[in-house]
Structures are given as C-alpha cells and as structure tokens.
Specification:
The complex is a heterodimer of chains A (533) and B (306).
Chain A: H1 3-27, H2 32-37, E1 44-45, H3 47-50, E2 52-59, H4 61-82, E3 87-92, E4 97-102, H5 108-118, E5 122-124, E6 129-131, E7 134-141, H6 143-168, E8 174-178, E9 182-188, H7 193-201, E10 206-210, H8 217-221, E11 229-237, E12 244-252, E13 257-258, E14 262-270, E15 275-282, H9 284-296, E16 302-306, E17 309-312, E18 324-327, H10 333-345, E19 352-360, H11 362-415, E20 419-420, H12 422-451, H13 456-488, H14 491-525
Parallel strand pairs in A: 1-20
Antiparallel strand pairs in A: 2-9, 2-19, 3-4, 4-7, 5-7, 6-7, 8-9, 10-13, 10-16, 11-12, 14-15, 15-18, 16-17
Chain B: H1 16-36, H2 44-47, E1 49-56, H3 62-69, E2 77-81, E3 89-94, H4 103-116, E4 121-129, H5 131-159, H6 162-185, H7 192-222, H8 228-260, H9 266-297
Antiparallel strand pairs in B: 1-3, 1-4, 2-3
Helix pairs in contact in B: 1-6, 5-6, 5-7, 6-7, 6-9, 7-8, 7-9, 8-9
C-alpha cells in the first residue's frame, strides 16, 4: 500500500469508528464505563416523533401595566384620604393613564407635591384642566417604568410557568423567552396535553369576595347590576355527561383577599363524601386579614373565585383564625391536584394568550417513527438493489458508501445533538436517493472513458477527476437551499434542513473519498484489466 | 447493464418547440387551476386555523362528524378521511382560531366526548396556528424561497456565466409553477413541509441543470467549431444516462415515502414526486434550449443551425 492510501485507510476507519461510537447509545443501552468516558447522547426525537406539546404563548404584558396602574390609583385614593384632600374621583381612564378630580383649588400645590415625591413613576400629562368647579389631572405612567413592568411580567410568567410544569412532572421541558413578550414551551411526551395546557395558561388569580345578598340576583341577571357589585358564574362540569352547568352569583366587587398571601396549597380528601378538596394556608398577614374578614362578616357568604370563576361560596359560620381555608367544588382528583399546583406556583402577572399550539399524541408519534423507518428501509433497499444490478461490482462499492452515508447522518445527529423530526426522516430518505447521484456521475463518466479505450485504472482516474467539479457544483446548490431552509424554517422543517445538509456533506465524503479508496485499493493489488461497472 | 445506449444521439433541441408547447400548456393548466380556486390553498401554517386529527375505534361516517362539528358556530370547516383506509382516521380543519386556553380542539373534544363516548375516539394531533404566527410563518416561508433562489442564482452566476443562471432559474420557476399547479389540482394545501419539499425540488432541478451546463461548458471548449445547438444537444445526450438513473433512484425513495411514510408526510412526498418528474423533464427539454434561445436573442454568431 502506498503511503497516501494508508493514510486514507486510517482516516476512513477512524471516521467509521467514531460514527459507531456516537450511534451505539441510541440503539442499545451502553455500560456504565461507556457513559463515563464516551459520548452517550441519544439522538433526540422531535415532538412530532415522540409526542408532546408545542406552545407559543403571548404574555399580555399591557395587562400587568394596567394592574399596576390600578394599584397606584387605589394608593392615590388612600393617600388623598389620609391627607384630607377633598377629591371627586381617582380613576384609571386608559391602560396607561389615571385621572384625578379634585375639588378645592387650594390643594393644588399639595397634591402636585404628593405626586412628584411619592408617585415618581406617574407623570403629569399636560396642564390640569379646570371646569365645573373641578380640577382634573391626567397622570401617565412613565414609559420606561411601563416597559420595566412588562419585562418583569414576562420574566415572572416564565418563572411561574416553569414552577407549574415542574410540579406537573414533565421530563426535559423547554421553556424559552421569544422576542419581547412571547414564551415558547415544549413538553415532550405529555399524555394529557389538554390538562397541561390548562395548567400552564391559567392566570390563577385567587380572590375572596363577599356575596351581595342585599340586592336581587334576579334583577342583576336582567342587566341591572348595582355599581358596587358584579355578576360572576360558577361553572361545573358533570364528570359523566360532560354537561356544563352555570350558576350565577351576585358579588361585591371589592376583593377582600387574594392568593398572593398563600404559602401553601394541597389536596385533601373529604372523609364524609370521599371528595377531594384543596386546603390552602395563608401567611401571617394573610391569616390576620382572613380572620378579620370572617369576624366582620359572620353568617354572610364568602365566595372563592379563581380567574373570575366562582368555585364555592360557603357561609361563614364563625371567625376563622390560623389562616387555613378550603376550596371545595366537586373536583376530580386530577382537577384538585392541578388547582393545588397553580395555587402553589402563584398567579401569572398577566394573562397569556395561545398563539400557536401543536400537539402530537404518543401513538401517532410512534406510528410516524415506524412508518419513517419502514420507508427508509424500503427506499434504501430499492436503491441498493437497483444500483447493484445496474453497476455490478462497482454498484456494490456505491452501496457500501450509501449505507455508510446513513450511518454518518445518524452519528452527526447524535454528535451535534440535532433533533430528528418526521420531515427529517424524509430528508434522510431523500438524501439516500440523491447521494447516489455522485456515484452515478462518476460511474457514467468512467463508462464513457472505458468506451474511449482507456484502461480500467485510467478510466477510473479520469472518471473521478472529471465528475468531481460537477458533483461539487450540484451539491453546493442544494446545500444553499438547505441553508436558507434552516435559517427561516421552524420546528420540523428545520429538522429536514438539518438532515439534508448533513446528508450532503456526508455524501461528499462517502461517495468521493470512500469509494475512490476502495477502487484504488483493488486496482493497486491486481493488474486489473476489466472492471465491473 | 445500461438503459441508455452509449451512442445515443436523440435530437432534443429539435423537440424544443414541442416541449415548449407542452410546458406552456402545463403552466396554463396550473395557473388556471390556481385562478379558479382563488390562489394557492394555504394550510393552517400560513392561513392560521385549527387542525385536528382524530381516530375512531370503529368505522365512522364523515357526515356524522360533520353534523357534530357544525354544532360549533364556525365560518368554515372541513372533514376528510386521512391516512390509510381502515384506520378510521379523519382530519378536521377549521379556518378559525380562538385564543382561549382549550381552543376549538377543546370544544370539539367535549362534543365528541358527549356524542361518541370518551373511549371510542382518540385525538392524535392538534395544530392551532394563530393569525399572527400564520403571518409570521408565511413571511418566513416566502423569505426562505426567495433567499434560496437568489443564493443559487448567485452561485451559478459565479461558477458559470449569467446565461446559465437564467436558464436554470427559468427552468426551476417552470418546475415550481407546475408543482404548485399539481398541488392545486389535487386540492392539497400548502404548509411548511410543502415549502420544504418545493425548495428541495428547486435544489434538485438546479442540480440537474448544472450537470448538463457543466457538460455544455466542457464541450464548448473542445468543440469550438460546432454550432452551440449541436454542443447542447450532445451534452444532453451524454448526461442523459446519469439524469435518468438519478431521477429513478430519487423517485424510488420518494415513492417509498409516498406509500409507506404515513399520512402526515403524504403530501410532502406527493410534492417531491411531481417535482422530481417535472424537474427531470425541464432540465432536459427546457433549461438548455433556453440557453440557445438566450444566445439567439443576443445574436451570437455560433447559434444558427444545430
């Protein structure tokens, strides 16, 4: 063997060995010493193959700003009250503005002082307007502050969602911030996607409000709702018939206590009805507030509301101290567990909207894998047999290169931790069909050279050298297409671009370097006159 | 073994007129179909909407499913059988999205629960794409196609002469239009994977064209006294065997994908199948003769005759 050929042999053998090392963990369990010393990454499957949920959420961060503004309005009202400044109203008039109406012109200086010293993030918008014995101030939230609140809301939402998912129990979830206000979530292998989505997307604002027994519910249902009250519903789903019943409740608008004061929530079983309920526990301040509420409103009904949905409205029998309460409501075990999870993880700072949702059931994923593997096997067998019949012994060389090509693609997927998707499998099948092109080009050229009367050795030589430039040209153009597909593609399509690009690079190696080596090796040993091509 | 005789000298250039007519007819049919159907049909990836793949335990009637879907007030929806026969699988596509948590799939599931019973069906796939994401994906898909076309054009321009690039781009535009036409006639929607398939067809078509172009360039140097038409014709003949063999192997695997790959990539394989056939045809009959036409327009003196 010449020195050059020897080096090639070493190179090819090491590539094959390396590929095998990377592939093995995917197909069989490797011993501990392997895991410690060698790569043990398995080829990761996309959601379309392993089943799972892909979600793109948008955090309505504007709502978080609005909520903050509402809180400022309440605080302002309180301050004006304690400072004894007579005022007509303090209202949030838009998503970013508060209007104050004061009555006494002499308090102008004082109020402006309060705003600039204690409410630094609220900026006066224009000059105060005086009309009808009232001075109206319009205060706008500082845009930087609004931006900060929005950013914080998104970050907090991600944190909360991560906690919920962790509590729900998903292995290897992906939770990423996308752009300014979007969250990408991927949950591989979730059995009950609807439940997971419900859990992730719930705003989970827990509120306690009193039931308005002074006004008539029937009246309110006709649309005649008192200014201080609101109409909310209790939705209950019959577990057997899936029938949803809606019960209306007339509630006082004022929120007495929220879930912010919770420190724990857990599922318990009611021993009498054998029904699960959620037991909640407040922090010390929350416990005090709860005690005060229950003391002041004994014999009244206190509604427990989650995201504007009334869960229950029990009558307060007695003062409740210690900060423990129960949420009941004909839960299934799963519902109770999920409720406890969201309460523990806390509420989202702003509601989220689902922009994109893709979910694949595990059975479909498995079907896709089976069908993908089947088409790879059938496709490659067809090509292998065809090439063998058409080109004889040389075909066998090309076939070997093709099998090696598949091996290299799989190894590269494992090595780069790329994700194999269904279009990715299609890309592999396609690569098989197209990778053979390089060898076809070489063989056809060699045949032409043979016809010109060249010796086997010379024909192979010029076949390779003349076809090489063409092979490069055609592969680079396909590679360009794959590159842009990768750049702009999403999810599964990206997987297609990945396998296609890897396939192109691998095929250059297998179809040119490897086959050439084999030919050189055989043509060197014997003085071959004829080759089967 | 060989399919193509070594001394083959088929007069491809002479068939340019015929091929031209065939191509124009195919393009007209494609364009016609797209016009009649009101533009290419976008799948939910691009148009936004909800898609639900459901499998029933027993045989089910499309009409029955329809009746249940209609209970939800929807602007437009379709129910069609999906995948292999006997699998009792159906694809429900709805052109709407709602952004509440459970979305339309939740409503459909609740209705199915009530009508068929929980155990008698399985929702195997749900895809919901909101209008914002749809617009975003549409833009990205468009960019991917445009950028890869420009990228390939730039590469061909750099490696060959501009005229080769023009021929290649026109040929692949021809392929893309006819493939889109076939999709339109078959009533298949254009989704992200279809864009990937079309880009692959584009790559494949350019591939084919380049191989012939390479040969033309090589032969032009050797046969500098011959007319360009003759050089082109000879080059096509010399590469014919390779063109046919590669198309055949590619078709073999695409057919395997089409028949065994399963419902989810059925349309993807269909697109590839049409594209590979059209791409092979165009690289033989369209791309290189266009080169001749281009030279004719620029009245190169080597053009006359074949």
């Amino acid at each position: 063997m010449t020195k050059n050929l020897k080096w090639k042999a070493v190179l090819i053998c090491s590539v094959i060995a390396l590929a095998l090392v990377y592939i093995l963990p995917t197909f069989c369990t490797v011993p501990i010493w392997w895991e410690d010393n060698l790569p043990s990454e398995k080829i990761s499957l996309g959601l379309d193959l392993q089943g799972g949920v892909h979600l793109l959420l948008e955090v309505e961060a504007g709502k978080a700003v609005e909520n903050t503004l509402e809180r400022y309005a309440e605080e302002l009202e309180e301050v004006l009250f304690t400072e004894r400044i007579p005022f007509d109203h303090v209202d949030k008039i838009s998503a970013t503005e508060i209007e104050i109406g004061i009555i006494d012109p002499d308090t102008r200086e004082k109020i402006e002082g309060i705003i600039s010293s204690r409410f630094k993030v609220l900026k006066q918008k224009g000059k105060p307007v005086e009309e009808n014995d009232m001075i109206r101030y319009v205060l706008e939230i500082d845009s930087q502050e609004a931006e900060y609140i929005s950013k914080l809301a998104v970050d907090q939402a991600i944190e909360t969602i991560r906690n919920r998912i962790d509590a729900f129990g998903v292995s290897e979830p992906i939770i990423l911030k996308q752009g300014m206000d979007k969250i990408l979530i991927q949950l591989p292998g979730v059995d009950d996607p609807d439940r997971a989505i419900d859990l992730i997307g719930k705003t989970a604002i827990l509120e306690f409000k009193l039931v308005d027994d002074e006004n008539s519910l029937a009246e309110a249902k006709t649309g005649n709702i008192p200014a201080e009250s609101q109409l909310l519903y209790q939705r209950q789903t019959d577990p057997k018939t899936s029938e949803v019943t809606k019960t209306p409740f007339l509630l006082k608008k004022r929120t007495l206590l929220t879930g912010d004061r919770l420190i724990n929530a857990s599922v318990r079983i009611d021993s009498r009805f054998n029904e699960p309920y959620v037991s909640i526990e407040f922090d010390s301040r929350g416990a005090k507030i709860f005690e005060r509420i229950t003391k002041k409103n004994t014999k009244k009904r206190l509604a427990i509301i989650l995201d504007d949905n009334v869960y229950s409205a029990p009558t307060i029998q007695d003062r409740i101290s210690g900060g423990h309460a129960q949420i009941t409501g004909r839960f299934s075990m799963e519902e109770a567990r999920d409720l406890a999870i969201v309460l523990r993880a806390g509420s989202l700072p702003a509601p989220v909207k689902i922009l994109e949702r893709r979910q694949v059931g595990p059975s479909l994923g498995q079907d896709s894998i089976d069908q993908g593997v089947k088409s790879i096997i059938i496709g490659s067998l067809l090509v292998l047999v065809f090439i063998l019949v058409y080109y004889g012994a040389s075909g066998l060389v090309a076939d070997f290169a093709l099998v090696l090509n598949i091996l290299l693609i799989l190894a590269a997927l494992a090595a780069f931790r790329a994700t194999l998707t269904l279009p990715g499998i299609a890309g592999m099948v396609l690569t098989i069909g197209m990778a053979i092109d390089a060898n076809v080009l070489i063989f056809e050229r060699t045949r032409e050279e043979l016809r010109l009367g060249k010796t086997a050795r010379a024909a192979i030589d010029s076949g390779y050298s003349k076809a090489l430039i063409t092979i490069l040209d055609s592969n680079i153009t396909t590679f360009v297409a794959a590159l842009f597909l990768f750049q702009f593609g999403t999810g599964p399509v990206k997987g297609f671009a990945v396998t296609l690009s890897i396939g192109i690079i691998a095929s250059l190696f297998t179809a040119i370097v490897v086959t050439r080596f084999i030919f050189d090796y055989f043509l060197m040993r014997r003085s071959v006159k004829k080759i089967s091509i | 073994m060989q399919f193509i005789k070594q001394d083959i000298n088929f007069d491809f250039i002479g068939k340019t007129r015929l091929a031209g007519i065939l191509s124009v007819v195919l393009i007209l049919i494609s364009a016609g179909s797209m016009v009649i159907k009101g533009g290419p049909k976008y799948g939910i990836d691009f148009a936004g909407g909800t898609l639900i793949q459901v499998q029933f335990a027993e045989q089910m009637d499309v009409v029955k499913i329809r009746a249940i879907i209609d209970k939800i007030d929807l602007s437009s929806s379709s129910v069609q059988p999906f995948g292999d026969k006997g699998e009792n699988e159906y694809l429900i596509s709805i052109n709407e999205t709602v952004d509440d948590l459970q979305g339309l799939s939740g409503k459909v599931k609740a209705l199915f629960d009530k009508s068929f019973g929980k155990e008698n069906f399985e929702i195997r796939r749900v895809e919901m794409v909101g209008p914002k994401v749809g617009a975003d994906l549409r833009q990205k898909g468009f960019m991917a196609v445009i950028c890869s076309l420009l990228g390939m054009l730039a590469y061909i321009w750099w490696r060959f002469e501009f005229k080769f690039g023009i021929g290649a781009i026109l040929a692949l535009t021809h392929d893309v239009i006819i493939t889109l036409g076939a999709l339109s006639i078959a009533g298949k929607a254009i989704d992200l994977p279809i864009i990937a398939a079309i880009l692959t067809v584009v790559g494949y078509s350019v591939n084919d064209t380049i191989i012939v172009s390479d040969r033309i360039r090589e032969n032009t140097r050797r046969m500098s006294r011959d007319k360009l038409g003759k050089v082109i014709n000879m080059s096509i003949n010399q590469t014919l065997s390779r063109t046919i063999i590669t198309s055949l192997t590619t078709l073999l695997v695409v057919i395997a994908l089409f028949f065994f790959g399963g419902g989810v990539i059925h349309d993807f394989a269909f697109t590839l199948m049409v594209g590979v056939i059209v791409g092979t045809y165009s690289s033989i009959f369209i791309a290189s003769p266009l080169l001749l036409l281009w030279e004719k327009i620029l009245h190169d003196n080597r053009v006359q005759g074949k």
